[in-house]
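Quiz preparation item.
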């Protein structure tokens, strides 16, 4: 077990908030609450500290302007290497039926950009840098890595987490940010509703022959979505979501043969592709926790909801969980307990609609493009013609999808 930043002389650590999981969501939660002056302990079974490499990371995320703004406001973006971040100025959506893409431009939405593409290593490194900065100034920010969680139980006064090496952490509030197979969620007896898409995403980076022009392109076919996301140095990151059987075939190809297939599938739109680095694969499920809270416990990020990556929304949704709880916490008076039931209920109520919408959006689009790609394109067309609503009113999107799927 490794302690960073803080070595307790006591047997136990007493804190306001214990966060299990130091992925993107757990790290950002630790930063947001530390900045509010809360005592925070961040615990992970592994060590997610990142050493930046020159090689490009195959794992990338599309982040919304809202996420980037928030990460800027909590001091994370200042640590990002912006030379490795690429803006998305336009989105093009293709279906099987026609050559013409549907187009959404930043200027149609009155925005300087629709989002950015950032590598996992760049974002994780920036989050760590900011957390280290805060911990250097404040002894009550504690980081424990390589510590397997053993026991979790509510006492009269707090929630007690037992770690390997018998080093207990006592907190007012437990945040489960421990990912899709959340241990905390299981301990809290919270079930999940799971939908297996029987799909796998194949991801990798490629140099392209023609300028990508900061356009994010997606090709929708029945249960088959290929995304080419713009990266600096005229590279693209591919996220190809296909049936698990098809993914096995793609992964068995040499990277040159895969590049050739991507070239064909994208109708040669960016010319020839040259592989950069290795490919990776991720199984795709939709999984939603039946509750977002239990006694003195909240779920966040993939521990609460995992969605299909076609909309590039998964971690944006997780960051919005953190934003919401942090916002509610600012309305707290100093003596109030973070584990307070009424407070946790406010969080759950505030987050439910957003999570439901994203579930319906991603599984709805997957189903729609599989049954009727013309109708799907019509829906997407209406969505795009509504410009700003795409970004600002998920309720509109939801209604539209439900109407069309039900029609
Ligand atoms: C192919 C693909 C593409 C994607 N693209 C996008 C995109 O473009 N945009 C977007 O917004 N999202 C995207 N996502 C979704 C995004 O990757 C996830 O939503 C996000 O990584 C979840 O972060 P998290 O911090 O909740 O969980 P995780 O990253 O899973 O972190 C969980 C942490 O908890 C730790 N942990 C687990 N169990 C324990 C335990 N028992 N005790 C202690 N620690 C534990 C783990 O070690 C880990 O560090 C994509 C996902 C996939 C699969």
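Solution:
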């Amino acid at each position: 077990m490794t302690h960073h930043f803080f070595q307790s002389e006591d047997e136990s650590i007493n804190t306001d908030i214990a966060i299990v999981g130091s992925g993107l969501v757990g790290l950002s939660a630790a930063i947001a609450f530390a900045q509010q002056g809360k005592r925070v302990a961040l615990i992970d079974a592994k060590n997610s500290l990142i050493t930046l490499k020159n090689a490009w990371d195959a794992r990338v995320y599309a982040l919304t302007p809202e996420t980037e703004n928030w990460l800027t406001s909590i001091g994370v973006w200042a640590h990002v290497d912006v030379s490795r971040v690429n803006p998305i100025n336009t989105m093009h959506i293709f279906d099987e039926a026609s050559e013409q893409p549907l187009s959404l431009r930043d200027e149609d939405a009155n925005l300087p950009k629709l989002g950015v593409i950032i590598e996992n290593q760049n974002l994780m490194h920036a989050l760590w840098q900011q957390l280290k900065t805060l911990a250097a100034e404040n002894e009550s920010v504690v980081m424990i890595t390589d510590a397997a969680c053993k026991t979790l139980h509510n006492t009269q006064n707090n929630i007690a987490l037992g770690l390997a090496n018998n080093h207990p952490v006592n907190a007012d509030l437990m945040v489960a940010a421990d990912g899709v197979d959340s241990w905390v969620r299981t301990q809290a007896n919270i079930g999940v509703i799971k939908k297996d898409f029987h799909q796998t995403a194949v991801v990798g980076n490629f140099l392209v022959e023609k300028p990508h022009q900061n356009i994010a392109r997606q090709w929708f076919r029945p249960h088959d979505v290929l995304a080419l996301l713009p990266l600096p140095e005229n590279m693209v990151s591919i996220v190809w979501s296909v049936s698990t059987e098809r993914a096995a075939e793609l992964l068995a190809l040499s990277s040159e043969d895969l590049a050739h297939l991507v070239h064909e599938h994208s109708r040669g739109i960016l010319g020839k592709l040259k592989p950069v680095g290795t490919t990776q694969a991720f199984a795709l499920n939709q999984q939603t926790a039946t509750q977002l809270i239990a006694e003195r416990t909240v779920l966040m990020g993939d521990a609460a909801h995992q969605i299909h990556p076609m909309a590039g929304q998964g971690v944006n949704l997780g960051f919005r969980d953190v934003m919401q709880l942090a916002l509610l916490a600012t309305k707290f008076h100093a003596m109030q307990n973070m584990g307070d039931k009424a407070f946790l209920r406010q969080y759950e109520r505030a987050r439910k609609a957003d999570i439901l919408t994203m579930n319906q959006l991603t599984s709805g689009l997957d189903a729609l493009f599989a049954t009727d790609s013309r109708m799907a394109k019509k829906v997407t067309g209406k969505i795009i013609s509504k410009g700003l609503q795409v970004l600002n009113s998920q309720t509109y999107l939801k209604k539209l999808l439900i109407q069309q799927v039900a029609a």
